[in-house]
Amino acid sequence: MNRFAFLLVLPLVLLSGCEGTAISPQSRSPQSQPPPTTCGTPATTETQRVMEGLKPHCEGCHAQGTRGYFASVAAFQSLLVSDSRLVKAGSPDDSELVRLLEGRGTGAFKQMPIGQKSYAQLVSEGSATLSVQAVRAWIQGLGAQQRDSRPNPDAPRITRMSADQVQRALYQQLGLGYDDFFVNAKEFGFDMAESRGEDHLPLQSPDAIPAPRQYISGERYHGLGGGSVMNQVSADRTPAPTFALTLTQVSQRWCRRALAKPDNTALFPKGAARTANPADVKATLKRWSLHFLGERFTDAQVDELYADVFVPLATPTDTEPAYVGVCSYFIRHPHWIFY
After folding, report:
1. C-alpha 217: how far from its chain's center?
2. Domain contains 109
3. Cα 187 from Cα 292, distance rounded (Å)
4. pLDDT, tens digit, for every residue of 267-319?
5. What is the DSSP code string of 110-166?
6. Is residue 58 part of a domain?
7. What is the pTM (predicted TM-score) of this model?
8. Residue 254 near residue 176 (C-beta atoms within 8 A)
9. May I ask which residue range the UniProt record assigns to the signal sequence (predicted)?
10. H/E element holding 49?
11. Is there a contact between 259 and 252 (Cβ–Cβ < 8 Å)?
12. Is 60 part of a structural domain of the chain?
C-alpha cells in the first residue's frame, strides 16, 4: 500500500500480557520502555456473588464512567474492591461500602442507593436479597488487594482534534476566514450566517453566533464530530468514517480556495515561487511540512512525497491539482489530526 494513502488509524495488534495487559507488538528495550504493568488481584467467586447481589440496586447509577463499578466483574474488582478507600480488606467497619449500605456514609452521600430508605432497610423489607451481614463477611474474608496499575499514567496519549479546532486550524493555516464563506444575513430579525455558495463547502456550528442559515453548513460541522446544544447532538472525538470523509472533502476544497485567494500568503509567502520546477516544488513541500505538522520533512521524505503525490496529480499546463493534493495530504496526515 502506498504510504501516502489516507489512513486515519492503523489497527494495533495487541498481545496478551498478564490477563489482558496490552503489550505493544513492537520490540521493547529495557532502556526505552517502562517496566511491565502490575495486574491487580483477580475477583473471586464470592466477590462475583456479592456483586450480583448488589447489582439490582446499584447498577442504575454505576454502570459506566469512573464510578462504573457494576459494568462488569472486572470493573467491580478493580474500581471498588481493590480501592481501600471503599473496601478495607479484613475490616468491614472501616469500609465505606458497608457504611453506605447501613446509611452512615462519611462522604458526600450518607447512603447507597440514594433514596428514603437505606440498603439495610431494603433488606429488612425483602426488596434486597443480599444481606449486609453477607457483605460484612465477604470483606472480613478478603485478603490483601493489589490494584491494577493500568492504565499507565505516564503512557503517551493522543487526542483527535475537535470540529472547532479543525475549523480554526484550517482558517489559520490556509489563510481563510469567516468572510470567505459567509455573509451576514437576517432571519426573523436574528443574525444568521448566509453561505456564499455550497460549492465552497462552508461549515459552522449551529450554536455559533451568527448561526448558519443553511442546514448543510451545520451538518458538515457535525460530520467533523462537532456537538450542538441546540440540535441535541453530542460531540464525537473518534476517527469515525464520517469524520474521514468530511475532512477529505473539506481539505481538498478549502486548499483550492486558499490557493485561489488573491494576496493570500499563508501557503506561498512573498518571494516563494509557485511553479512546476522540481526544486521550487520540493522547497514548498518542506516548508509545508513545518507549516502544517510542526516537523520538517527530510529530503528523502520530500522526494517520496513529490514522486507519489505531486507528480501524478500535475498536468503539463496546470499544477493546481498537484498543490491541492499535497495540501490536502498534510491536513489528512495523522500528525495533523491527532495531537
Report:
1. 23
2. yes
3. 37
4. 999 888 899 999 999 999 999 999 999 999 999 999 999 999 999 999 888 99
5. SSSS-SSS-HHHHHHHTS--S-HHHHHHHHHH--------PSPTTS----BPPHHHH
6. yes
7. 0.58
8. yes
9. 1-22
10. helix 45-58
11. no
12. yes
User: What is the rounded CA–CA span in Å between residue 269 and residue 211?
Assistant: 33
pLDDT of 109 above 90: no
Helix (H) or strand (E) holding 55: helix 45-58
Give the amino acid at 184.
N
For residue 165, give Cα distances in angstroms to 169, 222, 334: 6, 13, 15
CA proximity to 330, closest of 176, 163, 198, 169: 169
In angstroms, the CA 250 to CA 245 distance is 9
Q: Which three cell numbers stand for residue 194?
A: 448566509
**Rounded distance between C-alpha atoms, residue 7 and residue 10, angstroms:** 7
Domain containing residue 124: 45-141
Our count of domains for the chain comes to 1
All cell numbers assigned to 327: 495540501
The residues pairing with 211 across neighbouring beta strands, listed in sequence order, are: 192
Q: How large is the C-alpha radius of gyration of the chain?
A: 29
239 and 8 in contact (C-beta within 8 Å)? yes
The residue whose grid cell reads 442504575 is 60
Over residues 28-54, mean pLDDT: 71
Q: Is 207 in contact with 221 (CB distance < 8 Å)?
A: no
Strands 190-195 and 182-187: antiparallel
Q: Using the structure block, give the residue that is written with the C-alpha cell 441535541.
A: 232
Mean pLDDT of 47-58: 91
Compute the distance between CA of residue 277 and CA of residue 201 in angstroms, rounded to an integer: 31
Which element (helix H / strand E) includes 192?
Answer: strand 190-195
| Least confident residue range of 155-159, 191-195, 203-207 | 155-159
How far apart CA 13 and CA 89 sit, in angstroms, is 37
Q: Is residue 127 part of a domain?
A: yes
